[in-house]
Design brief:
Low-confidence stretches: none
Number of strands: 0
Distance between the termini: 46 Å
Structural class: mainly alpha
Helix content: 55-70%
Mean pLDDT: 82
Length: 98
């Protein structure tokens, strides 16, 4: 049996951003309700990951910030809370403000 390597926080963030972007681009494959629920949770996870400085840089380098900002037009309160938490955490990193 192959031994699995532990997943680093940075790898977790990269996978979360990848999942977020793929869900965002392929929402028509899911029911809208399910899509929004998954999106709320993924963005919430990104917000938690963004509490760590290295993860904020990873989110920026993975293209996550523009996609998060685009979600600010949503009318779903839970999604908006998670988006503002994630964007706010990323905004504390000077390099992310460019």
């Amino acid at each position: 049996m192959a031994r699995l390597e532990p997943i680093t926080a940075q790898a977790c963030v990269k996978h979360s951003v990848f999942l977020f972007l793929n869900l965002y681009m392929h929402c028509f494959n899911l029911s809208m309700f399910l899509f929004v629920q998954v999106l709320i949770n993924v963005v919430g996870a990104l917000g938690e990951c963004a509490q760590i400085p290295a993860n904020r840089t990873t989110i920026r380098k993975s293209g996550g910030i523009p996609s998060l900002v685009n979600l600010l037009t949503s009318t779903n309160q839970a999604l908006l809370v998670n988006v503002t938490n994630a964007v706010g955490a990323c905004a504390t990193e000077p390099d992310n403000m460019a």
